[in-house]
Amino acid sequence: MTIADRNARPRLIIAGTGSGAGKTTVTLGLMRALAQRGLSVQGFKCGPDYIDPTYHTAVTGRPSRNLDAWMTSPEYVRDTFEKASAGHDISIIEGVMGLYDGKDPLSNTGSTAEIALVTQTPVILVVDVRSMARSAAAIVLGFQHLEPELNIAGVIVNRCGSAGHYTIVKKAIEQMCCIPVVGWLQRDEDMSIPERHLGLVPAIERGELEPLFQRAADVLMEGTDLDLLLELAASAPPLQQEKGSLAATTHGDSANAESGSNYDSQFDSVIHVNNRHVSYAVQPVIAVARDAAFNFYYPDNLELLEAAGARLQYFSPLAGEGIPMDVDGIYLGGGFPEEFAAEIAGNQGFLEGLRQVAQSNMPLFAECGGYMLLGEMLTDREGVTFNMAGIIPAQVQMQKKRAALGYREASSVQESFLLKKGEVLRGHEFHYSTMTYRDEATIPYAYETKGLRGLKQEGYAAGNIVAGYTHVHLGSYPAAAQRWVEHCLAYRQERYMQR
After folding, report:
1. Residue 201 — very low, low, confident or very high, per pLDDT cuts 50/70/90?
2. What is each CA distance from 97 to 21, 101, 274, 324, 445, in whole angstroms?
């Protein structure tokens, strides 16, 4: 890339007419096909999902990033995209649900269309054309007219019955919509993405989905004009980086208005805590559980903790590791603890370490999967029960039916190391388990969450512990990251004074 092109960001959004249209298959196939051409591909995912970014990372070899203007803000999304895409040949952004589906049925809020407009990215619309011909043109035309400012630059038609079927829908769409149909995928029932809750990350790590990724690439290359796609990606306008835009991440919530923080850089070598320079030697260290059981982390959360002054140390409970020595905080993310319940229950050093942390003043934050293992027992889908850490007086039961899904505004019920009472973080909830407390009336809930079904109290916050099902995005309120790190620093200083 030349100096003249440094602000150019070749990019495409792969959007669908609805869930199940085939955008994930097209995205993975395109990423793999471009990588096989020798291009450096950076992946992104519209919305809060963890699974699709994990696919992207497996295919491209680099961490995929979430772009969510509701959980964060348009400015934050633009900044994240610019920083993560820098230095790569092309960025591929996978949409969420249908192109215009989001949080609000009356606007683009929380939709793929919103991200396309914020990042000025050309859209490739994936259309399932089973059992239709000229009607496919009507569908594309409707998508074009709903939001005239959106650049729907091309179409890929999926589940064609034959080459002849493809020719028919291609002619109809191009005549009526004046955009190219750049490729097609034949109907292939064997090329389907597995169920999203059945331990996909472990399957990826074992290489079990590699044939699926390669099959998607082979099918895409067979019927798609990759050169034309690259031309469309290169037609995206340059983006100018706005330094310091990470500061513009709150949503005007009065509860958060007095606690805004400025993060000019995610990669400063000198850290700042309460406007004081802190040397590397006294940086607070946060231990982050990271393996096949605990892997659902927004990269932004980790970077914002580092920007606030923390040094992160990763460890693997599945590898038999316990809580690392000389750390000042614990972060237990989501994932698939139920898939590895026996291994976790067998790592007594890890569980006992958590119990000791709970008895100390060290900040312990756990979300979803991490929250589950803080309970007394976990019962898997086969009805087998395993003893967990026993820090929270509750039992966890896995079930086949999804228990919760959707955006959440999480308001702190009480003062904690993460939030002052009443402060708000935005996030997402998605799980197949239920947490049953022994005595609901005595539980110190962490959050009051607001979703489509109204308000509810959830999680657990007592002493140094904050835990809950909600996956919070610290980009929605970066002051929470700073508050967390400051408490870790205070713990570290107190620990050294006692030596």
Report:
1. low
2. 9, 6, 41, 40, 32
